[in-house]
Amino acid sequence: MITMGILVNSSTKVLVQGITGRVGSFMTKMMIDYGTKIVAGTTPGKGGGYVHGVPVYNTIYEAVKEQGPIDASVVFVPASIADDAIYEAIDNGIKVIVAITEGIPLHSEIRFINYARTKGVVIVGPNTPGILTVNECNISIMPAFLFKRGSIGIVSRSGTLTFEVAAALAKHGYGVSTAIGIGGDLITGLDFIETYEMFLRDEHTEGIVLIGEIGGDAEERFANYYAKLEPKNKKPVIAILAGKTAPPGKRMGHAGAIISMGMGDYRSKRESLEKVGIPVAETPSQVPLLIERVLGK
Amino acid sequence: MKLYEFESKEIVARYGIPVPRGRVVDKPEEALQVAKELGAAVLKAQVLVGGRGLAGGIKIVDKPEEALQVAKELLSASIRGERVERILVEEKVCIDRELYISLTVDRAARKLMYLVSEIGGVEIEELAKKYPEKIHKIYVDPNIGYVDYMAREALQALKLPWTLLQDLANIMKGMYKIMIDYDAELVEFNPLAFTCEGKLVALDAKIIIDDNSLYKHPELQKLYGREFSGFERKARELGVGSYVELDGDIGIICNGAGITMMTMDLVYYYGGKPANFLDLGGGVTRERIKKALTLMLSHPRAKVILINIFAGFTKLNEVAQGIVDAVKEVGMKKPLIIRFKGTFAEEGMRILKENGITEVYTELDDAVKMAVELARKM
After folding, report:
1. Are residues B311 and A143, on separate chains, in Cβ contact within 8 Å?
2. Which residues on A lie below 8 Å from B229 (Cβ)?
3. B132, B100 in Cβ contact below 8 A?
4. What is the largest CA-CA distance in chain B?
5. In Å, how far are B100, B131, B148, B195 from B134, measured between CA atoms?
6. If exposure means fewest CB atoms within 10 Å of the residue's CB, which of A145, A258, B103, B338 is most exposed?
7. What's the CA gap between A211 and A199, in Å, rounded?
């Protein structure tokens, strides 16, 4: 099979941090069933056993020593100790860390995300549904069966809205290369610009759906960046934004979904995107129609 | 979680940052007593909503005797819908200039950042719109923290005399320590007064604590939820998820922040108005949906309830059971419109239909349209 997508593919070797927990173990089974190469798991103090056939280690150091280099890890560790797990992964040479955990303290996030960046490590999340390269590698809690393989990249600040969009795309015959949740917190490892650049380099991705929401200015920054790109570096992008009717000053579920300091409202995001030629869908069912329009097929 | 001004100032003072002399009171007689000790005084309603000054929440009394009447009025008032239960009585400070300083999180840079401006006393939102060039930003590396050059830079931006460098440095160092010690997402002095005596005083202080860090601060965690009332509070007490009260008549229950917002947006798109935002979060259990639905069935404004669950690792047969449990226990007091998609959707739908719940949809648009139509008819 030709590999496609961004960050992870069929040859990615994956470690599960917190593999013996309820969610960690359940999701490990789902990921293995999808065909993901889960080579090891860790839970301090529970090394020596197996979870769904995957060897469990006390430390990543030990896992790497026995299994060889590991490309990516997925973190199902509780919020209060998630930073510890992430530092362990960074310092053991893992280059992609998918931090599913919700509720990690803000200042921990700021520290480990800055540390990861200095080490050239990509943090997906925190508070993300994960990353899925369709039919190749599932490092996520997404219902992967909904995603058809194809040439649309999805980059999202949300979880379930991503599923909704993927289902709408599939209904119209559009498949997905990679779907990635960049996370719902105030601070995230990746932003829309960096993720777009990865999709740009992936020759199998022809168009991109950006799923944004109120709060912060990541969508506006992406619009400014996109406007300045040379035509040869432009892949078609369409967007859908949640929170058009959200009241200001209220946190709408995600730590990062709040209109504050006069920033982050729907209108500013929508206008910025439309101004630079990125159409914005009002409903998930409009997404495939807009994709059809920008791809011309 | 937002702290009240008086709570923020207690913390700020402990870090050696000058604040006006004063005390928080909840009775007019106490306000009078404090005013007598201070002379000319400022009475400030303690509320968590913004824009307090414009809404009449700050009063100056030049004669202490006036404090009794003013305090009575303030303590029986509401500021933008929030009841005033306490007032902070402070000495009146002679102000030469009002400045702005805050330490906050820059989401784009993923770093902390001081914002300073020679224009204070107006809301930073307004300042950012009108005079963006008057806001100076100083980024702080999380692994290095505050460094003294930052105070020199801020001093320049604030157009303050060189003699105040040490004072400003102490304030900025204190702000950084508070930010870290209290796991804050914002420490803001607006205004920071440059007084007639040439000193710097934090006239107002605002601290917002990161909700995800509250578990590290039991004394603050106890206070969590106090800014909520009515159904927002009930939902928190029940632990069913994230709830925001809105003013329409269609009750909304979904799983995931993005899809809940989108469902809300769709209700508007098709001409309806949501009564609330309720995001159950990931992994919805039978018990959680039961509690959530029971809560929404008792909502006075919600005429119909729209449940939209897109299941990844949630199991829709369990969700259906929870819905049936709630209806059996409290009765189907209002129409339910349900949209199921994902894991075990068919089984979930079968369970609902067997139990007389028939408005069940696969497509989100269809469900929303039906909810809007039913609400309009009722």
Report:
1. yes
2. none
3. no
4. 79
5. 10, 5, 22, 21
6. A145
7. 15
With tokens 């909810």, the residue in question is B371
Confidence of residue B236 (pLDDT cuts 50, 70, 90): confident
What ipTM is given for this predicted complex?
0.91
Average pLDDT over residues B236-257: 93
pLDDT in tens, B111-160: 999 999 999 988 887 888 888 899 999 999 998 999 999 999 999 999 99
Q: What is the CATH number of the domain that holds B329?
A: 3.40.50.261
For residue A262, give how far its alpha carbon lies from the nearest alpha carbon of chain B (Å): 5
Q: Which residues of B touch A111 (CB under 8 A)?
A: 142-143
Distance (Å) from the alpha carbon of A142 to chain B's nearest alpha carbon: 6
According to the model, what pLDDT value does residue A261 have? 64
Of B91, B123, B140, the position where a domain reaches its end is B91
A45 part of contact set with chain B, CB < 8 Å: no
Closest CA–CA distance from residue B92 to any residue of chain A (Å): 28
Q: Considering the domain boundaries, does residue B257 fall inside one?
A: yes
Total domains in chain B come to 3
Residue the block writes with tokens 């059809």: A292
Instruction: Burial-class residue A247 by CB neighbours within 10 Å (0-12, 13-18, 19+).
Output: middle
- Best of A108, A112, A186, A245 to mutate (most B CBs within 10 Å, chain B): A245
- Measuring CA to CA, which residue among A120, A79, A69, A119 is closest to residue A99? A79
For residue B280, the enclosing domain spans 230-377
Give 3-state DSSP helix, strand, coil % of chain A, rounded to 5.
Answer: 35, 25, 40
Q: Where are the domains of chain A?
A: 13-124, 142-295
CATH of A142-295, one of 3.90.1150.10, 3.40.50.2300, 3.40.50.720, 3.40.50.261: 3.40.50.261
Residues of B in Cβ contact (< 8 Å) with A122: none
* Residues of chain A with C-beta less than 8 angstroms from the C-beta of B144: none
Active site residue ranges of B = 100, 188
pLDDT value for A1: 65
- B83 beta partners: B78
Interface with A, mutate which of B124, B259, B366 (most A CBs under 10 A): B259
CATH number for the domain harbouring residue B110: 3.30.470.20
pLDDT band with cut points at 50, 70 and 90 for residue B313: confident
Q: How far apart are CA A135 and CA B80, in angstroms?
A: 53
Same domain, B26 and B123: no
**Which of A129, A157, A253 has the CB atom closest to B279's CB atom?**
A253
Residues on chain B touching A282 (C-beta within 8 angstroms): 265, 269
Q: Are residues B208 and B108 in the same domain?
A: yes
Q: What kind of fold does domain A13-124 have according to CATH?
A: Rossmann fold (3.40.50)
Same domain, B59 and B154: no
What's the CA gap between B88 and B205, in Å, rounded? Answer: 12
Our CA-based measurement puts residue B14 at a distance from the nearest CA of chain A, in whole angstroms, of 22
Same domain, B247 and B127: no
With respect to residue B244, please indicate whether it lies within any of the assigned structural domains: yes
Cβ distance A102 to B282 less than 8 Å, yes or no, reads yes
A167 and B CB contact within 8 Å: yes
Nearest to B305 by CA among B267, B343, B269: B267
Per-residue pLDDT of chain A (297 residues; tens, 9 = 90+): 678 889 999 999 999 999 999 889 999 999 999 999 999 999 999 999 999 999 999 999 999 999 999 999 999 999 999 999 999 999 999 999 999 999 999 999 999 999 999 999 999 999 999 999 999 999 999 989 889 999 999 999 998 899 999 999 999 999 999 999 999 999 999 999 999 999 999 999 999 999 999 988 899 999 999 999 999 999 999 999 999 998 887 888 777 777 666 678 899 999 999 999 999 999 999 999 999 999 986
Which of B261, B312, B313 is nearest residue A213 as measured by Cβ atoms? B261
Do residue B56 and residue B80 come from a single domain?
A: yes
